[in-house]
Amino acid sequence: MSRMITVGAAQLGPIQKAESRTSAVNRMIQLMEQARRKQCDLIVFPELALTTFFPRYLMKDRDEIEQWFERSMPNEVTQPLFDAAREFGMGFHLGYAELVEEQGETRRYNTAILVDKSGTIVGKYRKVHLPGHAEYEDERRFQHLEKYYFDVGNTGFNVWRTMGGVLGMCICNDRRWPETYRVMGLQGVEMVVLGYNTPSTNGKVEQDPHLRMFQSRLCMQSGAYQNSTWVVGVAKAGTEDGHQLFGGTCIVAPTGEIVAQAQGLGDELIVADCDLDLCLEGKENMFNFTAHRRPEYYQLITEQAGAVPPEE
Amino acid sequence: MSRMITVGAAQLGPIQKAESRTSAVNRMIQLMEQARRKQCDLIVFPELALTTFFPRYLMKDRDEIEQWFERSMPNEVTQPLFDAAREFGMGFHLGYAELVEEQGETRRYNTAILVDKSGTIVGKYRKVHLPGHAEYEDERRFQHLEKYYFDVGNTGFNVWRTMGGVLGMCICNDRRWPETYRVMGLQGVEMVVLGYNTPSTNGKVEQDPHLRMFQSRLCMQSGAYQNSTWVVGVAKAGTEDGHQLFGGTCIVAPTGEIVAQAQGLGDELIVADCDLDLCLEGKENMFNFTAHRRPEYYQLITEQAGAVPPEE
User: Fold this and answer.
1) pLDDT at residue A1 above 70?
2) Which partner for B168 in A172, A244, B184, B201 could form a disulfide, CB atoms 3.0-4.6 Å apart?
């Protein structure tokens, strides 16, 4: 058997602070046209794909903050992506900043959607693991204010049966947490798609630059292997107004092996034919959860958030 | 600050079916003598270190089975290890097959102990994730009957404050499961020690041999990074009566990087100076669990063992 999804991982180069959403969407449409020529069923765009990675800046004025958020999806600026999806018969994944009213309160989420080949939104995910900090920190070389700008996502880690398989989503820092993949693995996920904006350097401590790429891949590769799922990780890369984001867009097989990876830090499409039936070997043997998992010994994972070391 | 534990990862070459426990212990004592010259505080031996990896054979006779198990620890044969520990001022970790009476029932566990520098057993762990199968499977090139010979361990994943740090244990296939590391990470673990016996080839499906080593390391390295802990993984390696076990003994830093690895498939000691304070950077920032974990979205991990895909 084989159930093939041809996936395009569409890395975006930098989006400067002054670049318009319309320009970013035009760049994405060009990548969709490339993906059509390569017969892609699905194209994956990064986290916060419409704008620069604005959480590196502290803003206090409400209007200034909210200009970075989308109040509806699709909207006038993003409609061409949905039109292209329908015209090309190509699903897509898009990350953006979402502003909504919930129970009379304004909420701001770091959000991603999954759109099918008819241009219909079939799934929405709001980022759970917000990295960084909630207040300005003077000792940092640059800020990472995701906990200031965003509420913790309230969707949980869901999966959707679409495009012939079971697909799930997460966003950026979520990829470092094994719980992210496991919760989707327990719902039979066959492909996790995710976008990220990750600085090339640590804002606080000096760190060997190669290490950050290694750790990012280590998490995606182990998440793939340990749940026997495809993982498609897509970067926004390159230098945004002096701040470099690393690239490393890649497609990871259920064996944990990288089968395609980006070569640069700009707009770049990489493609792989992903047979979802390759997930079966792992799901039926090494990671047959029913046969091998022992939740009675995992209780701490859901009973407590923080670490509690034994008394001295 | 620095809190250094100098660790020796003591890979064992093959133990043939006919080799005595006394011979295996003598080999381990030689490795302890090497470790003493290298100033080790702790030496880590593999899983089932006293005998060949007997779960590859089907045995039905109770006496024949029980000869592979220890009924007490220390016992006459293993006492020299405890004496050397006290004499050398060196802790050790040892895996063995354990037979006990519990509530009037005979139980068999795949067990490991942690012994401190005074030769006192400070911790015991019984393997939770038993791989393989419970009945003879004709289609396999060799058997992996751990579910036949062993009961599921009943200790859970504990940690112990000993040798100046917080140490934990797991065994072989446990290392592939992110829950193993996470449960110890939630108890502040700073060093996980583990042994394994892993065949170089898959008994059922044809597999690229490099892949098995890659996957083993992927799990130990991600477990280390995602919990900001040292991981010491020690193989029994080489060809036991025609069945090859892979080596790959390694010491992994809290960054996820391998800092020492074995070169061969025989008895071999590798050593690293492991500063437990290197765990702090990860535990206080990227993997500050209190700041970033969201157990409310992890509930499936403890609510169900097996995967439940969405309806078609």
Assistant:
1) no
2) B184
Return the pLDDT at B2. 76
B299 found inside a domain: no
Q: Render pLDDT for B183-202 as a digit per residue (tens, 0 to 9).
A: 999 999 999 999 999 999 98
In B148-167, the residues whose Cβ lies within 8 Å of chain A are 152, 156-157, 159-161, 166
Phi, psi dihedral angles at A274 (to 5 degrees):
-105, 110
The question of whether A127 is a catalytic residue gets the answer: yes
pLDDT-based confidence at residue A202 (cuts at 50, 70, 90): confident
The answer to whether the Cβ–Cβ distance between A299 and B298 falls below 8 Å is no
Indicate the pTM of the whole model. Answer: 0.98
* Cross-chain Cβ contact B301/A179 below 8 Å: yes
ipTM: 0.97
Told to judge if A40 belongs to the known catalytic residues of this protein, a careful annotator would answer: no
Torsion sign over Cα B38, B93, A296, A283:
positive
Interface A–B counts its CB contacts (< 8 A) at: 197
Does the annotation mark A47 as catalytic?
yes
Tokens of B199: 């065949």
Report whether A255 contacts A229 (CB < 8 A): no
Tokens describing residue B129: 């994730």
Domain assignment present for A295: no
Residue A276 CA: distances (Å) to CA of A113, A165, A241, A280, B106:
21, 7, 40, 8, 44
Give the domain extent around B197: 9-289
Is residue B2 within 8 angstroms of chain A, CB to CB?
no
Total count of domains within chain B = 1
Q: Are A265 and A237 in contact (CB under 8 A)?
A: yes
**Rounded CA separation B69/B48 (Å):** 10
Q: CATH code at B232?
A: 3.60.110.10
pLDDT digits (tens, 9 = 90+) for B267-277: 999 999 999 99
B305 to chain A: which residues are within 8 Å by CB?
289-290, 293-295
Tally of CB atoms within 10 A around A26:
11
C-alpha–C-alpha distance, residues A266 and A14, integer Å? 7
Name the active-site residue from A40, A172, A219, A279: A172
Q: Is residue A301 part of a domain?
A: no
Q: How confident is the model at residue B96 (pLDDT cuts 50, 70, 90)?
A: very high
Burial of A35 (0-12, 13-18, 19+ CB in 10 A): buried
Tokens of B156: 């859970």
Kindly name the residue from A40, A47, A240, A274 that is annotated as catalytic: A47
Predicted confidence band of residue A208 (pLDDT cuts 50, 70, 90): confident
Asked if the Cβ–Cβ distance from B257 to A305 is below 8 Å, we say no
Q: For residue A67, tell me if it sits in a domain.
A: yes
**Partners of residue A287 in chain B, C-beta under 8 Å:** 176
Radius of gyration of chain B measured on its C-alpha atoms: 19
